[in-house]
Design a protein that fits this description.
Layout (H helix, E strand, L loop, with lengths): L4 E8 L4 E7 L3 E4 L7 H10 L9 E3 L5 H4 L2 H8 L3 E4 L3 H6 L11 H6 L16 E3 L3 E2 L7 E5 L8 E5 L3 E5 L3 E2 H4 L1 E6 L7 H12 L5 E4 L7 H20 L10
Parallel strand pairs: 3-4, 4-5, 5-6, 10-13
Antiparallel strand pairs: 1-2, 2-3, 7-8, 8-9, 9-10, 11-12
Helix pairs in contact: 1-3, 7-8
Length: about 250
């Protein structure tokens, strides 16, 4: 067993928006919060006894503003390289997510009115481009970056050899984490069916827990049960021509 420790770094609220500090032989940060949160993340890393300058890597799970918003500044503060998937390069390079957001339900429609989701972050160029499964041993972590497209085309998750899945927005807690432990969609998906396919592929790998961008860790079996219900819901929407997707399929 690798003994990788997963430490949530709250960015907004207790767990409304999370980054994660992964401690193996070297520390790795997953996600970079909202614009203007770099110093907060930096200081919370230090509060866990880790020198932020020792970060081996910053992994960005996808091109939404609450996940890559402070990537550029964290790179400047720590010197750590930033890894991102090639399919989300446009948001990274422009500082803006692809528009329009495609809400998954009432929460997404409400949040879509929030001006903070439409601001521009400092753009950045990932120093490490992800296009497929990527081993993290060179960065001191026993684990892999796994492409999990659907939420965005370039969404990724990090799976440790211990079985912890740091899943970004592959799934969330209900109401942005206000109902802990209850699986739900995040507010937006570019491709709901594609995301469900990615979620099932990760569940098939037998993770022990899912650490998500919005909320507390989720139990895999509970997520599996939710995914079965979600498949039926999406099938109904698709049959009625009401399933919105950025893909052409």
């Amino acid at each position: 067993m690798s003994g990788t420790k997963i430490i949530p770094i709250p960015v907004l609220g207790k767990h409304a928006v999370n980054a994660y500090l992964l401690l193996g032989r070297r520390p790795v940060l997953v996600d970079a919060g909202t614009p203007g949160s770099a110093r907060l993340i930096h200081d919370r890393i230090a509060a866990h006894g880790v020198d932020p300058a020792d970060l081996a890597l910053i992994v960005i799970t996808h091109g939404h503003i609450d996940h890559f918003g402070s990537a550029a500044e964290l790179h400047r503060l720590t010197g750590a390289p930033v890894a991102g998937h090639t399919a989300d390069l446009e948001p990274f390079r422009t500082g803006r997510p692809l528009m329009p957001y495609l809400p998954t339900g009432p929460m997404g429609r409400l949040m879509n009115r929030n001006r903070k989701l439409h601001v521009r972050a400092d753009p950045f160029e990932p120093g490490i481009l992800i296009s497929g499964e990527t081993d993290l041993s060179d960065f001191g972590l026993a684990g892999r970056i796994m492409p999990t497209p659907g939420h965005t085309a370039g969404s990724v998750s990090v799976l440790t050899d211990d079985g912890d899945l740091v899943a970004g927005d592959l799934v969330a807690n209900s109401f942005m984490g206000l109902i802990p432990g209850k699986p739900a969609n995040p507010p937006f998906h570019d491709d709901p069916l594609g995301n469900l396919t990615s979620l099932r592929a990760m569940l098939d790998l037998g993770p022990s827990r899912l650490h998500v961008g919005h909320g507390t860790p989720l139990a895999p079996e509970r997520v599996r049960r939710w995914a079965r219900l979600e498949e039926r819901r999406l099938a109904r929407l698709h049959s009625r021509g009401r399933l919105r997707s950025r893909t052409k399929s």
